[in-house]
Amino acid sequence: MDDFFTSMKIRERVKHDIALDKLSVKEYEDSFRDSGK
């Protein structure tokens, strides 16, 4: 039971990290585009 709970926590953390990565990549691309004008 503990293993199941731990794997669920890890999965949620990974999802959260991926969402943050996508957000930071988008912000990076936007700032890059703006400076290119």
Give an account of the 3D structure:
- The protein has 37 residues and is an all-alpha fold.
- The protein has 1 helix and no strands.
- The longest helix has 34 residues, at 2-35.
- It has one helix at 2-35.
- The mean pLDDT is 88.
- This is XkdX family protein.
- It comes from Streptococcus mitis bv. 2 str. F0392.
Radius of gyration: 16 Å
Structural class: mainly alpha
Largest sheet descriptor = none
Low-pLDDT sequence parts? none
Mean pLDDT over all positions? 88
Task: State the shape.
Answer: rod-shaped
Distance between the termini: 55 Å
* Quaternary structure classification: single chain
Q: How many individual β-strands?
A: 0
Count of alpha/pi helices: 1
Q: Spell the H/E element sequence.
A: H
Strand content: under 5%
Q: Which percent bin holds the helix content?
A: over 70%
Organism: Streptococcus mitis bv. 2 str. F0392
Protein name: XkdX family protein
In brief:
This protein has 37 residues and is mainly alpha-helical. It is 92% helix and 0% strand.
Relevant terms:
1 helix; single chain; mainly alpha; 37 residues
Give the topology.
Blueprint: H1 2-35
